[in-house]
Amino acid sequence: MKYIFTLFFVVILTTNCYSQNKDREELKKVSNEILTYIKEYSIVTDSINWKEFRRDILTKITKLDDVDSNKIIFSSILDKLRQYGDFHSFYSDKSNLKKIVSNDTTLNYPSSKIIDDSIGYISLPTHLSMNEKDNFIYADTLRKQIRLLDEKYSIKGWIVDLRGNGGGNMWPMLAGLNPIIEDGTVGYFVSKGKRIKWQSTSKNNYKCKNLHNKIAILIDSLTGSSGEMAAISLLGRENSKSFGTKTSGYTTANQNFKLSNGAMLFLATAYCEDRTKKKYIGKITPDVEVSDNTKTITKSKEWLLE
């Protein structure tokens, strides 16, 4: 029995060693993929000492006792990017990615109301989905709510509330806001001297009676990523003004790269500009700072009714 137990132990040990070596090789492969994408596309690639960066990551993988791909990617690769000024890139493993792509996550949709019979209030929540159906519902919900307010009331101005909007998918947000602004270029992604336009087009959808109304944009410290992009799409426009506190500062565009392990790298590859080509790096500072969150709507109403 002792011999059998010893043999069983050796088999387990050998199997575990084989499994760890296999996991380590897999991690090395995925890490190399990530490093390649960073070197080619990252906004901070020119600041990185690539020889040292690559050596440090691969050395850490070799010395790992417990091969945990998430740990090495988060603690080593992404932390290194943070040191160089990229605070937006992130890694999503296979299980999390499935939730984002499918409709397995609980989503919130835009809401609206009328204030003082003359101000249209619309609130845009975070939208963490790449599912086509979810995206359509988000944009369509916002467009329908805007139309109901615009047809029923004589709107003198709009409040677009982006407080607490931590981001997700920016395109449904921009599509949903289209009825209150004129069609055209509302912003840009800028990467390596090239500009990619953000176009806002109605495509036969409803347009408000007055496309030159004032728009008050409400932001706070929780407004980030695509929430900031939605704000930028309205900034630079005549009759637009922002109220609240500084945003999160994730004003870069993330491009997604599928990895061989089924995960995805969301990498910051471009900076953002508004329609006037004003570049936004880091936090957006509001035009009117309102430290008391309960008074932000009141302050914006005062300006809208001037």
Using brief descriptors, characterize the structure shown.
6-stranded mixed sheet; 306 residues; 12 strands; 2-enoyl-CoA Hydratase, Chain A, domain 1; 6-stranded antiparallel sheet; single chain; alpha/beta; 22% strand; 8 helices
Query: Shape from CA axes?
Result: elongated
The proportion of residues forming helix, as a percent range, comes to 40-55%
Order of helices and strands: HHHEHEEHEHEEEHEEEEEH
Summed over residues and divided by their number, the pLDDT gives a mean of 88
CATH class (first level) name of the largest domain: Alpha Beta
What report would you give on this structure?
The chain has helices at residues 2-41, 50-63, 69-83, 94-101, 132-152, 170-177, 226-234, 296-304; strands spanning 90-92, 111-115, 119-123, 157-161, 184-191, 194-200, 214-219, 240-244, 252-258, 264-274, 279-280, 288-289. With 306 residues, the chain is α/β, with parallel strands linked by helices. It folds into two domains: 16-86; 103-252 and 270-305, 2-enoyl-CoA Hydratase, Chain A, domain 1, CATH 3.90.226. The strands form two sheets. Strands 1, 5, 6, 9, 10 and 11 form a six-stranded antiparallel beta sheet that branches. Strands 2-3-4-7-8-12 form a six-stranded mixed beta sheet, sandwiched between helices. Strand 9 and strand 10 (264-274) form a beta hairpin. The longest helix has 40 residues, at 2-41.
